[in-house]
Design brief:
The structure holds two protein chains of two kinds. By secondary structure, chain A is mostly beta strands. Chain A has strands at about 5, 10-15, 20, 25, 30-40, 45-50, 55-60, 65-70, 75-80, 85-95, 100, 105-110. Chain B is mostly beta strands. Classes of the chains: A mainly beta, B mainly beta. At the A-B interface, strand 5, strand 6, strand 10 and strand 11 of A face strand 5 and strand 10 of B.
């Protein structure tokens, strides 16, 4: 069955610290991969996406993600978080006109 | 360029009623998708419309329906509301058909069913 797992429901990091949010997927073929962010009271905003090619993808707001086929993972990283990064982050996989979202990871930032 | 707009932003209904939600996509976008977001189930795809035709459908009962107009605006209707329909309903638009295209989301309509 196709699925997306974000193992961490909540993550807390200090402002200025590095961040890694985990995403693992189960899919028949290599899907397209996405990370979205949702701030309180807002819709989702695309941070970055991977379709093919270079497995390290750069996105907006200083985020990057690395696709690792052998681990079926697409983890999101940021070298130094800012208080404005506090939000909920969703990993999604899509192919063949389907898209599946993970349950999300809520990021808390300590001052 | 204006973003995706959804109206109303908040709705309170009672069980058994029906509700219609509206979505205006970004100008030039022809695909509109609808999602239901709940704490328990997360984000679940409802359906996608393109050129006034439903092209993809998620695993929801027939009480959930939608339509798209010639100007790409879309409406979603839920009939015979149940308590479990309480959720944030998100609309997303994109230039092309296919859920893997970049989607631009609206702020959502928060539906509460009492």
């Amino acid at each position: 069955a196709q699925s997306v797992t974000q193992p961490d429901i909540h993550i807390t990091v200090s402002e200025g610290a590095s961040l890694e949010l985990r995403c693992n997927y189960s899919y028949g073929a290599t899907p397209y991969l996405f990370w979205y962010v949702q701030s309180p009271g807002q819709g989702l905003q695309l941070l970055l996406k991977y379709f093919s090619g270079d497995t390290l993808v750069q996105g907006i707001k200083g985020f990057e993600a690395e696709f690792k086929r052998s681990q079926s993972s697409f983890n999101l990283r940021k070298p130094s978080v800012h208080w404005s990064d506090a939000a909920e982050y969703f990993c999604a996989v899509g192919r063949d006109d389907k898209i599946i979202f993970g349950k999300g990871t809520r990021l808390h930032i300590l001052p | 360029k204006a973003g995706v707009t959804q109206t109303p932003r908040y709705l309170i209904k009672t069980r058994g009623q029906q509700v219609t939600l509206s979505c205006s996509p970004i100008s030039g976008h022809r695909s509109v998708s609808w999602y239901q977001q709940t704490p328990g189930q997360g984000l679940q795809f409802l359906f996608e419309y393109f050129s006034e035709t439903q092209r993809n459908k998620g695993n929801f009962p027939g009480r959930f329906s939608g339509r798209q107009f010639s100007n790409s605006r879309s409406e979603m209707n839920v009939s015979t509301l149940e308590l479990g329909d309480s959720a944030l309903y998100l609309c997303a638009s994109s230039l092309a058909l296919g859920l893997y295209n970049e989607q631009f989301f609206g702020p959502g309509t928060r539906l509460t069913v009492l």
